[in-house]
Amino acid sequence: TFLGLTNLYNNIDLSSNKIRLIEKDAFKGLKSLTRLYLNDNYLNNLMGGIFQELNSLEILDLSSNFIENIH
Q1: What is the CA radius of gyration of the chain?
Q2: Which of 4, 10, 30, 64 would disulfide-bridge 40, Cβ 3.0–4.6 Å?
Q3: For residues 39 and 15, is the Cβ–Cβ distance under 8 A?
C-alpha cells in the first residue's frame, strides 16, 4: 500500500509487473493521484470500490489484463 505517501504521488506506473491481485485498500488515501497505470499485468478479478477514493483520477489504464470479474 501507499499509506503515508498520500500527497506525494500524482502518477503511479505499475505496468508490466506481473501483478495478479490488488488488495482492496491498496490505493487508500491517494486523493491527489491523477494517473494510474496497471496495464500489461495478470489482473483477472478486481474488488469493488478499489478505486473509490481516487477522486482526482483522470487516467486509469487497465489494458492488456485478463479482467473477468469486478466484485
Answers
A1: 11
A2: 64
A3: yes
- Cα 55 to Cα 14: distance, rounded to the nearest angstrom: 19
Cell 488488495, located at residue: 23
For residue 46, the surrounding DSSP H or E stretch is strand 45-46
Length of the chain: 71
pLDDT tens digits along 20-51: 999 988 998 898 999 999 999 999 999 889 99
**Could you tell me which of 69, 70, 64 has the C-alpha nearest to residue 14?**
64
CB atoms under 10 Å from CB of 30, counted, come to 25
Residues 2-13 have pLDDT tens digits of 455 545 569 999
